[in-house]
Amino acid sequence: MAQEITSVIGGKRSTGTQIHLRKMELEVVSGDHAGDTASFDHDVVRLGSSDGNHFQIFDTTVSRRHAEITRVQDGILLRDLGSTNGSFVGEVKVREVFLGEERVFRVGKTEVKFTLRDEVVDVEPLDESEFQGIVGQSVAMRQVYSVLERVARTELTVLITGETGTGKELASRAVHACSPRKNGPFVVFDCGSVARSLVESELFGHERGAFTGAVSARAGVFEQAHGGTIFLDELGELPIELQPTLLRVLEQREVRRLGDRRVRPVDVRVVAATNVDLLQAAKEGRFREDLYYRLAVVEVGLPPLRDRLEDIELLFQRLLPNAGFPHTVKGITPAVARLFAEYHWPGNVRELRNTLYRAIPFSEGDLIDLQSLPDALRDRDGTPGSPSTGTTLDLPEAGLGYHDAKERLIEGFERRYLEDLLGRCAGNLSKAAREAGVDRKTVARMLKRHGIKG
Question: In this predicted model, what pLDDT tens digit does every residue of 84-99 receive, in sequence order?
Answer without folding.
Answer: 999 999 999 999 999 9
